[in-house]
Design goal:
Elements lengths: L2 H45 L6 E2 L17 E9 L4 E7 L6 E7 L4 E6 L7 E7 L1 H9 L10 E4 L4 E9 L6 H9 L2 E5 L5
């Protein structure tokens, strides 16, 4: 084998290794979000039962309960399983105090998001339902007294809501925790057709 043959063999070997590494990287990039989201949902269910809110531990660089958590945000999570009934969220909103709600599927995909600016008369009332549950609820509505609830249809029966409040300074953390804890999260029974 001459030098040119050895050089070509080494070059082919190197290209083969780069191809395998590239394919592995591409597969990892596409698989990781799915695996990480399921891991997050499993941790949420270990922390809280459906229809019950639980305060998340503060985000730190070395430990984060939720991926990409902001240390300036105080968060709680409320998992739901619409097979047990609809999910009702109620919050009394304070002016100039950030409160956000992020509605997600069990895989972590956001299907609705809102802030305190969406409040009507200082209150946020949201009901998360399946399409069948929404039909039942709408059939029971009183035309003379329409409901003020925001009704959301979840794309999956299981998911969670992340409730966040800003604590811009460490001294504001206790106040932000109280704001997040004040959001009521409960299962609402819906009569079946």
């Amino acid at each position: 084998m001459n030098r040119l043959d050895r050089l070509l063999a080494a070059l082919l070997w190197l290209l083969g290794i780069l191809a395998v590494a590239g394919i592995t990287l591409i597969v990892a990039i596409f698989v990781l979000p799915e695996v990480a989201a399921k891991d997050t949902y499993a941790r949420i269910l270990a922390l809280a039962k459906p229809g019950q809110a639980a305060l998340l531990p503060p985000a730190r660089p070395d430990t984060q309960f939720m991926p990409f958590a902001d240390p300036a945000m105080v968060q709680s999570v409320c998992p739901f399983d619409l097979a047990d009934g609809g999910l009702r969220l109620h919050a009394d909103v304070e002016a100039d105090k950030l409160l956000s709600l992020s509605f997600r599927t069990s895989g972590g995909q956001v299907f609705y998001s809102m802030t305190d600016l969406a409040a009507q008369q200082g209150k946020i009332d949201v009901v998360v339902l399946t399409p069948a549950q929404l039909e039942v609820v709408e059939a029971d509505d009183d035309e003379d007294d329409p409901s003020q609830d925001l009704r959301l249809i979840a794309p999956e029966t299981m998911g969670y809501v992340i409730i966040s409040s800003l604590a811009a300074y460490p001294g504001e953390r206790a106040e932000a925790e109280e704001r997040v804890k004040s959001v009521a999260c409960s299962v609402e029974q819906v009569a079946q057709e």
